[in-house]
């Protein structure tokens, strides 16, 4: 039996964060290298690792992320191997090198605690969604893991003057330096999105990337505050 299951065994540690299969994240934990992770995402761990839900240092920043008192993240600290997952979603690992990424809150799985992060209003979208839409912006040098409902596609923006249009329900992340605006679409409302009313897309321009998943999530992918 051990030989039959050998192909699923953990692989030697190669990086701070890496995939174990498509749907699981392996994090090499070490003292002094704390991690923020989605609450409830831990599926297994080895060694000595402690968890702090709704940590005070993140509570104020994350208060805009969700309604209610609790923040959707926990702080992980210790030494060992930590395995995280989110209901079988694909996991995408990104190593930021003095760079930044804007991520839908529902797609954030984990990130290094020493990265700078904040909850930012998506500029140019307020008139399409009442008081605006909010995203999590992560910046600095370190590791980030995001989830995708299926294998995502990374679209490069900035090719000429063309804009990249994305259904908000399929959007995972994008470069924060991109310009964003909303576009209403009456005739395409039966083809884009799953709503029965007026459809709208997000238009990106500038140089950067847009990460799109091949699935539309029925939850509020961009938090509407109101």
Automatic annotation (TrEMBL):
In Pfam terms, one family for this protein is AIM24
Which protein, by its recorded name, is this?
AIM24 family protein
Q: What organism does the record attribute this protein to?
A: Streptomyces enissocaesilis
